Hints:
By secondary structure, this protein is mainly β. About 10% of the residues lie in helices and about 35% in strands. The protein folds into two domains: about 325 residues, Pectate Lyase C-like, CATH 2.160.20.10; about 80 residues, no CATH class. The strands form six sheets. Strands 1-2-5-8-13-16-19-22-25-28-31-34 form a twelve-stranded parallel β-sheet, covered by helices on one side. Strands 3-6-9-14-17-20-23-26-29-32-35-36 form a twelve-stranded parallel β-sheet, with no helix packed on it. Strands 4-7-12-15-18-21 form a six-stranded parallel β-sheet.
Amino acid sequence: MNKQFFFTCYMMLTLHPVTLIPSQMVLAATQRVPSQFSxxxxxxxxxxxxxxxxxxxGTYIEHIKLKDGVTLQGGWNGDFTNRNISTNETIIDGIKxxxxxxxxxxxxxxxxxxxxxxxxxxxxxxxxxSGIYCRGTSLTIVNxxxxxxSPSGVFCSDKSTAKIIKNRIHDNGQAGxxxxxxxxxxIQFNTIWGNKYSGIGSSKPPLSKIxxxxxxxxxxxxxxxxxxxxxxxxxxxIIYENKRAGINGNATPLSIINNTIVKNGWAGILVEIPExxxxxxxxxxxxxxxxxxxxxxQGVSYNLLFSNNDTGxxxxxxxxxxxxxYGGYGDEISFKRHKDFIANPxxxxxxxxxxxxxxxxxxxxxxxxxxxxxDVNFPSSLGSEINDIGAFGGPQxxxxxxxxxxxxxxxxxxxxxxxSKKKSVILESG
Length: 430
C-alpha cells in the first residue's frame, strides 16, 4: 500500500467522520407471530436484545422462555395495525406439559397476555412451576391476566427483581404472587382476588422485599398480603374480605401506611410477634372479624378503627372497646398516646365495595400532619393537604379519572390519567 492510499483514507475520515451507533440500536427489530413465526418460542429464539416480539390475538399452547432484553407484546390484531389487549385476547396456555407457562429472563417484558395452566414440575432435587416463574432474573410483568395456574400466578425467588404492574391475578392454586429467598419485587396497580392462598405471599429466608402500592386485593382464601418473610412498604392498597388477615407481617423494617382494610376474617393487620415495631400509620381498619390491629402498639399511630371484633360504634372511653380493636392488647392510655381513634369512616358505598370517603368523613385531614404524608392528588384526596387516612390519602394516592357529570371513581385498570391537582371537598347531598 502506498502513501497516497493512506493519505486518501485519512482525508475521508477527516472530512466524513464516522458516527458509531450502538449495536443494540442498529439491530433492534420486530418479530411477528404468527405471520412470520408460527410460535412465540420460535420468534423469541430469533430475537436479540432490544427487539420486540408482537403477537396477534389467539391461543398459543406452549411453554415459553423469555429472552434477555426482549419485549413480548400481546393484543395485536391480525395485520398488526392495532393493539387492544381486551379485544385481541392473546392466551399462552401451558396445558400440554408440566412446568411454568412463562419462564423469566433479565430485563425482559411480558405485556398484554392471558397466562394460564402453569403447573408444578419436578426437576431432580428442585421444582419449578406457576404461571410466571422468575428465579434470579429481572423482568417486568404488565397488563396481563394471570389465572388458573399452580402453585401460584407469579413466583419469584433467589434474589429476583420484578416489576408487576396493572395485572389481573386471580383463581390460582396457591398465592396470586409469591416471593421467597431474597426476591425484591415492586407490585402496583394490580387487582388480585380469589386465589387459594394469599393474594401476595412470602416464605423462606433470606427475607424478601416488597413494595405493594395501589393494589386492590380481595376475597383470597388466606391473607390479603402475607409478609411474614418480607420487609418493605405496603401503602395505598384496598384490602377486603380475605379469609385470614388483611395484612400479616412480622419482620422489620416494614411500613404499612394509608391502606383501607375492611372485613377480613382475622385481624385487619396481624403482627405475629406483637412486640415487633412495624410502622402502622394512617390506615382505615374497619369491621375485621378478630381485631383491627393485633399488636402491642409499637410503631402504631394515626389509624382510624371502627367496629372491629363486632364492637359496632363503641365508646373509646371504655376499656373493652379499645382492647377489642387491638386483639386484647392496649388500653385507653396507649390508645390515646399513639393517636388512633375510633369512628365510622363514612365510605361512599361499602356494600358495593366503594371505599372512597364521603365529604363528611372523619378520616379527612386526620392523618399524621408531618408534611412527609401530605396529600398531593385531588381527587382522590379531599380537604386540605394534611393526610387523609386510608387508601385515598397521602402522596401515593392515585389521581382519579372522572367522567363529566360523574363522581370521581377509583380504577385499578390500565387507564390511569393525570388530572388537576387542585384541592377539593365533595359535598354530599341526601
